[in-house]
Structures are given as C-alpha cells and as structure tokens.
Amino acid sequence: MPLALALAPLLAACSSLPFGGTGDRPDIRVTESPETGVMRPQGRPGAAGAETGLAPGMEAGMEADGTTPAAPEPGADGLLGETLAGIGAAGGPGNWVETGLVTARRSGRVETQSGATLDVELRPSGAAPSAGSTISVPAMQALGLPLGQLATLRVYAE
User: Cβ of 24: how many Cβ atoms within 10 Å?
Assistant: First the structure.
C-alpha cells in the first residue's frame, strides 16, 4: 500500500509527457496524394498477398516469356562474370559456388577483390546470371573472407 501511494504522483506526472496521451498535438490531415509516377516499394516475389508488379507465375530476374536469362558464355580467359556472394548452406562439403552464371556443374575458379584465388565447383543456382551467389564455408575460409559479409567474386570457368 505505501508503494502505491509513493507511485501515484509519479504516474500523474507521466500524463504530461508527449507519449501516451493526446496532449496538445495538432490535428494534421493529408489532403494530397502522390502522383502516379511516384515509385512504391514492391513485395517479395511469391509472398502471399504481395503486389510484386509481375505477372502471375513470374519471378524476379525472368524474361517476359517466363524463362530465366541464359548464363553467359566464358570469355577468352574463362571469365563468366562478377557476382556478389554470401555464405551458403552449412554442411555442404568442399569448395563450391552456387551461381546463376552456369547452367550445369563444372569446374571453375573464383578470385576475390584482394587477388586471392581458389579452384571451386561451380553449381547452377537456377537464378538469373545477375542474381547473387552463395559460396561454401570452406571456400570462404580458404579465400580469407569474413563469414558474415558479402564478397565480390570474379567467376572463371575452367
């Protein structure tokens, strides 16, 4: 009971703070809406009830006819392209990169921005070539990459 009497003045003082009550806030009403040219955020593809702006059955990275763009052909030096890679599923043994830059498993090599290189197995991700990639934990460690960060990799076919 004495505690309740001690807290009563403190609780009464809280009603004058700007949170909780209506206070003396002005009544603001928005009378204009943004024009149709204003960009709005889109929901994630496949999310229930999300407006993605894509036709039914389409996913981000697909062509208008519903196909995924073809993986690039390697250049004269075997370069397939650059990708932003993050840590892949744990437990997958070996050095591998899962990427949209290939359509079938093949041997390859990756190079970091610092110049470190590693022979890896390139695995198709089924995503567009411009989509990000995943890399195995052992490969990230061998390249000296921090496990919690994304890394820019140059991907080469062997």
Answer: 6
